[in-house]
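go over this chain:
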Amino acid sequence: MPKKTTDKSVRKLTKLGGKSIGLTLPIEIVRELGWKEKQKVVVKRVRGGVLIKDWKK
């Protein structure tokens, strides 16, 4: 039986196709940010990880 993690911030990466990887964000964080489904976001590589922020026109 697999171990259950108690930390809700731990997520797994999921393969979406040939060259894409998906990450599920906790719904609490998405709601706090006021983000909606299919909203455009900017993904930028930064030192030690990635930065995801709202896309501004």
